[in-house]
Fold Renin receptor.
Amino acid sequence: MLCSIGTSGQLIVAVARRKMSLTNRLRMEAVFSVVLVICSFVRPGVHADSLTVLQAPEFVSFQKGDWPISGERVPDLVALTMGFSVQEDLSWPGLQVGGLFQRPRANVLVVVRGVDSLNFPQSVASYPLENPVPFTLDSVAETVHSLFSEYTPVVLQLAPSEERLYMLGKANAVFEDLPVTLQQIRARLSQDGSVLTSLPLNSLSRNSEADLLFLSEVQVLHDISALLQRHRHLATDYSPDLYSLELSGLEELSRIYGKDSPQYRDATAILSSVLQKFGEDVYRLYGNRAVVEVVTVKTFEAPLTRKSRSILESKQISNPGSPFNLAYKYNFEYAVIFNIVLWLMIILALAVIAIAYNLWNMDPGYDSIIYRMTNQKIRMD
């Protein structure tokens, strides 16, 4: 009520102050000024986009706080959580420096369009998202593939609504059966084990195109988790994995039914529970060493386009003998070799110091057999 006063409230105050004493006028002006200052910061009913960390290992330290992060720096945040370097330092207090020799085995980023926030029963931390521009994890994907191409890294970027798929690495054969196009996903909904038999649809209909789009995205999350369950070796190898999923079913539901519709409310509740379970399943599959983030964006400021690529495409690594002064390929055994060399050097340094100290304090006449024999020979002469 107070924040709705505006300019009309100022006019009322100007008229009323003529009939007040000086003391009452000063009090009223002070109260009105405080109300205007408070209303300048408070915007009732407006929620900001958010970045929510559902799961994270103990050695990846996310601090709870109201620290906003720009949308264009989300790829840098993902790279830092995986232990990679970035071109520009991220001066953001939400992520603290973790262990030097411990890195997560996977990072899963889910972008949900059409909603500013989701109510998750459990989460590590949540932060406001500023400047929600479209972003991709291409730079992180290229880093993973270039450093761990000898192993089987999973690099999967998928947007079911736009039928965009981007895959790298030798693990592509595992995801050959993953439905990609909307036609394939809708056919999957009619098969055994689909989410239609386990989800409480309530107001959602199986005959609506918008409802089927949303349910198709939920089906993709279920199928990815099921594939990882059957191929657990992908979660136990030496290479880190990267997943990037973009869901826009809620955006379509809000456009057709509206945000106050029962379909939108039911879909929001379903997606919150499905993402919570999906994060827990992935976190458990990777031995509690996976980071799962959810970015909720009401709308992007610019459209995002990407050329689709073949599901079996595997980019060739660069020639290590090229004349471009490239760094050597990272080996996962680097941490082990580094520890061996480090502690061996420390032990040798301590040994040299101990030997030097004993030699400095040695008495040649009593501690050295050479000088002892020399003294006896002198005495005999």
Residues 62 and 257 are 37 Å apart (CA to CA).
